[in-house]
Structure prediction request, 346 residues.
Amino acid sequence: MTVLPPKIPIRNLYYLLCYAWNHLEQGALVDISRDSSISVADLFAKLLCDGVEHISRRGMQQGYEQREEELAGLRGRIDLIGSARRLLLEHGRANCTFDELSVDTHANRLIKATLKVLSGAAEDDAIRKRVRALHTRLREIGEVRLSKQMFRSVQISSNERFYRFLIHICEFVFSSCLVDSRTGTSKFRDFLRDERAMARVFEDFLLNFLKHELKTWNASRENIRWDAASDTDGSLSLLPRMRTDVILRSGERCRIADAKYYSASTSNYYETEKIHAANLYQLMSYVSNASAAEPYAEIAGILIYPRVDRTLRERYRIQGHVIEVCTVDLSADWREIHSELLSLFQ
Prediction:
């Protein structure tokens, strides 16, 4: 029987996502201290409502929208042919095309469309009513249907970081919702049990957590060059890319970290517990090739899994390199997670 990781509290999921999205400051503007028992859908409905009310108080994003209107005066560009055909000029009027500031922007349409999705996905009656009321208030913003292309084309300026935070929430909701084409109702899929989706979050969380919290090391993602040569593939272009989840540097010291989100932090081989072979081989490949490129550096590796049934703190020396296999308990109090992760790297 497959053993799943302990359920991650909603509050911890929110912290994971804030680090993964690199929006710690914006995330801190929303108080979730009393929301530890609500569903994932309700959490993000509340977050989006709080966020929309926050930007409404400051003034929602505006952009120029082209409009065409018959006016008793001149504004913008005049459509002379159309105005003459309709005899408007004789009556002191003209058909004009002009740009006007409007809150009906691409980003605001995405937010409104996400509110509509959440109005059908939220489980708590009070939260669902709040979402629907807020959606109704945004009557100046047009209705659109969410799509991947819409998120790729949205543009947010550098001084609108809270907007970018809200768009990340909208994209998360879009990727997590299953919409019934017959009824139009929405249902959140079990995101926390989706190993592939949570693996991406866990990787991004670990990188940005170490960037923000580990002051004695520089954290980044890097491509490691193969220690290889070829007579047939001179550029080594056919070899797979070695892209680290996290590489930490401090002077001549280097630690390569690989984050793995699995339903089990070890595998069974003929009923014997073993470290995942593919994970260990991959990490050793990173370490050995990085060592060849930087022969004077002290290079070590660490595999990090979510804790399932027990804590792992294993340490080996393989081919002269320290290799660690560790777990972190994502179901614990956030302060404990914070301390546990820092202890792995200090």
User: Anything to note?
Assistant: The chain has a mean pLDDT of 85. The CA atoms of residues 271 and 301 lie 27 Å apart.
